[in-house]
Amino acid sequence: MVASRAIGSLSRATASRMLRCSGYICRNFSGSSALRTRTHINYGVKGDVAVVRINSPNSKVNTLNKELQSEFMEVMNEIWASDQVRSAVLISSKPGCFIAGADINMLASCKTSEEVTQISREGQRTFEKLEKSTKPIVAAISGACLGGGLELAISCQYRIATKDRKTVLGTPEVLLGILPGAGGTQRLPKMVGVPAAFDMMLTGRNIHADRAKKMGLVDQLVDPLGPGLKPPEERTIEYLEEVAVTFAKGLSDKKISIKRDKGLVDKLISYAMSIPFVRQQIYKKVEEKVRKQTKGLYPAPLKIIDVVKTGIEQGNEAGYLSESQKFGELAMTRESKALVGLYHGQVLCKKNKFGAPQKEAKHLAILGAGLMGAGIAQVSVDKGLRTILKDATLAGLGRGQQQVFKGLNDKVKKKALTSFERDSIFSNLVGQLDYQGFEKADMVIEAVFEDLSLKHRVLKEVEAVIPDHCVFASNTSALPINEIAAVSKRPEKVIGMHYFSPVDKMQLLEIITTDKTSKDTTASAVAVGLKQGKVIIVVKDGPGFYTTRCLAPMMSEVLRILQEGVEPKKLDSLTTSFGFPVGAATLVDEVGVDVAKHVSEDLNKAFGERFGGGSVELLKQMVSRGFLGRKSGKGFYIYQEGVKNKNVNSDMDGILASLKVPPKSEVSSDEDIHYRLVTRFVNEAVMCLQEGILATPTEGDIGAVFGLGFPPCLGGPFRFVDLYGAQKVVDQLRRYEAAYGKPFTPCQLLIDHANSPNKKFYQ
Amino acid sequence: MTSLLTYTSKNLPNTSKWAVQFFVRPLSCSSQLRAAPAAQTKSKKTLAKPNIRNVVVVDGVRIPFLQSGTSYKDLMPHDLARAALSGLLTRTNVPKDVVDYIIFGTVIQEVKTSNVAREAALGAGFSDKTPAHTVTMACISANQAMTTGIGLIASGQYDVVVAGGVELMSDIPIRHSRKMRNMILELNKAKTLGQRLSLISKFRLNFLSPELPAVAEFSTSETMGHSADRLAAAFAVSRLDQDEYALRSHSLAKKAQDEGLLSDVVPFKVPGRETVTKDNGIRPSSLEQMAKLKPAFIKPYGTVTAANSSFLTDGASAMLIMAEEKALALGYKPKAYLRDFVYVSQDPKDQLLLGPTYATPKVLEKAGLTMNDIDAFEFHEAFSGQILANFKAMDSDWFAQNYMGRKTKVGSPPLEKFNNWGGSLSLGHPFGATGCRLVMAAANRLRKDGGQYGLVTACAAGGQGHAMIVEAYPK
User: Fold this and answer.
1) Which chain regions cross the lipid bilayer (chain B) (predicted)?
2) Which residue of B has its CA nearest to A250?
3) Of A498, A532, A566, the domain-final residue
């Protein structure tokens, strides 16, 4: 399931920090200016420095919404009018968050692009006033400074940031299909240079404080403090404020200059950028790269390039105008709605709706040190969970331990960890061959080979040594949990936890409950998953659960398409051009041909004709020839260490030729191939909701995008049906049904939606 | 803090302007009341324990502590240690053959003399039949040498132990890079010319970039000064407070030096140079001068500067400790008992230098004493900010409850009993040797001022700390 690795990394940035819906309304203060009470902002004066503290009530984060903005301007106007105040400091009272961004709901409530453009214009005007302030303003940044928060900060004259891991600066708008709409596209290139600004705005990546200092995004760093006479976070904010006040004073006394010393490299870059020809080349290069990576499926990055270009080539006025217009246009696109939907879904799937478990799981034991087992161990130990990793052989165990170490060490190389932290994290891992210490385990996750009798044996062995409260979780992609639980003495403690490979990169965790699984067991599994940093969907037990079950019919169609004579390379490019991060043939190779065969056989047995399509014989023959995919070096492609461009495995020609079926020309255009794949996927997903495997469409979308690589620009199968139109989907299915029969029969829920256009999965 | 400092500023010879301005503030009355410590009744008459041998300090000496790069700069660490050891021999006249064992502390090890205790002892004229070992525990290495000796004596293994410490910061082992070292080692193993040539062909210029030892925590890569600055900020200790404290240390040290109170110093004739008789880092300045300095670690707005930090120092110290009955049998009049001690450790990142805060209440509890029982405090002064942060931490119930698991604070030591003869800020801080200086300062102060109990405590890299009670030997 490497499929959605790309999105995984893309959306990890957004994970929990960015643009949040505020969830509160300041109804009581509609006339607040008259009352002079402010809910989001308070301000005091230290000497001749005004300290403006932002602290939105009832929320862990500050978001730029209308109330906050108007209070802020009110305060700033007071400051500008006051004779006593000569400079100002802007700071958040919330540890861990400066301003996490603009309020998404503010945009979502807009009906037209003009309304959105209007919001952008207002933001631009506000920040322009800050930029032109004659009294220097210092932004004191601790915690997330993202999106609109960053645009605010870069409008100030000076920036001081706390040098801790929580302090991140960035422009994640692109991940929501929009662009920085409050002057960011215009200011950022001037501040950090065009190449760096493009990098920030096109990737949406988070920038840590020390990197930000090097880039010139912040002017000073403040180290976080340890305990003193107050809790560390509290005192650190206070200290940041003290330092910021000194700098504000220094700036107004002209003792400190806001001019930054540029390094040689920066000087060279800015010189190069003054040559129009060089600029044109850069725009061209960046645009090419973006087109290649997005396949033209995402409009936002191209518009960002366009807006930046306009600002530089035609001046500020034109730049601001273009920014606000494009901002308005983008906010209304399907892609943006899909991405925003995913963002909301992700926030939901980061919560434990089952409540806190009775006993927090602190001691974990993992059975099987294979790729999955070791991956699960890695994401557990680095969150401070004591973890036993048990394997049957010393060699297997050693391989797993090395995998965990390597995963951590790679972080050291990227400077995300120090070598000392790596060592101390690694000491949470206990590798062993026996069941020693299992009497203390709160949760056992088995990741042994996918074989029911083996899982049964392991379950019985484990139940003999674990304490009563201990949860037994099975990491399986297809074996029904109730069958595994059948031999358990305590089926209420048995649950499925389906991780995706590679575990440290893939964000999704699919938790599977049987009828007997207790609520507390589920709560405990979700709590552990959340601790491991996962986005979690909880589904009912059934063949293939949700994710595997959706993937199987699509894979079956992949086989048919291959049998119909479409080259693996062609198929891959067709699927990726639709927005899947990995091509369909490559996906089979990555998953493993033997696994795919196993799963197809199982599910075909369970679902019968509906899962038909291509012949499993194709997979069988591949397995018998040893073409197991990437792990064996050969599958549809040939994999060689160090070779980047993989070649098609020519030995496959014979197998494919022997199983060839004639293509049906009426449903074999490129577009039809797209839709044959996608509609089967979508149909099965909707059926899972219809059958109650899925509890909500949100979980269905999150599972599909984060676990299977369903194109994020479509927002997931359910969002796709909403945005594309259920009727259209049903029509397509009917057309294919006419050609291929039952596998394409639309499910009842989908038909219901098609029949009543008002019915939507997302209201 | 300033109000505490007023008391001392009164005693200072220099009545500069800043001192005057603080006189206006009301003097804290407590400091006046506590002025005659010896008169107070103690919680305990003595700390002797039944069935445990009393361990005494017969005497202790140190060679003058010098700023590194000055008169000792061409010597090796064992030269300094040897000088301290021969000074001890001269001072105490101890018969060489009664010394059972020698222990030295050191931090930055000279590779050639990794057991510097043995090399120094051999050269200092001790018997070659006396074994010696070297210990290391950052700035409390000498403390570790002493307490190791105490353990050996108290457990009845030995009667007479010499403990000391040495540090030479004028020369530190700077290594070749790992790649270069590997190559040199491989070259040693290479048998044929071909092998050698093929190894040499792998040489790259960057192999030559050296590895310097840093005064930084291995676990956090943070330099100690940086951590001290953060600590001072965490406890909201101002730059002015720090400078005032540093000035106090230098002024008191100068006074003690001038009055000849630093009797543990023995002169050292440096080969090829003049005889060194005095510590050379004592330099009382003015607050105005100190205020001009730029922050040394957190730039440009930090508060720790060269003037309010201890400086890199060369020096060595040595002490003769014995079982009490042995000392008496040999006809000595000991200076002090070495009593209860503790080692503590905590978070090396944010509480690196808070050792004294953790160690003080623990050692007092262990000994059954209170802060009021202590007549002489000798704290290791790594940085002004560190000392003042420790004072604040010791005086905070919040800190005691939230970080130390104690119900109440222990209280900060009264300044009039505190480091009265200067401290590491002014006298200098040869990492491995400071512990013995602290104990001798406490013992000598108790003798001079007539107190009974002294408390010695220090912080150390690694987030560790130490405290020990010194009891004056009855006159």
Assistant:
1) none
2) B301
3) A532
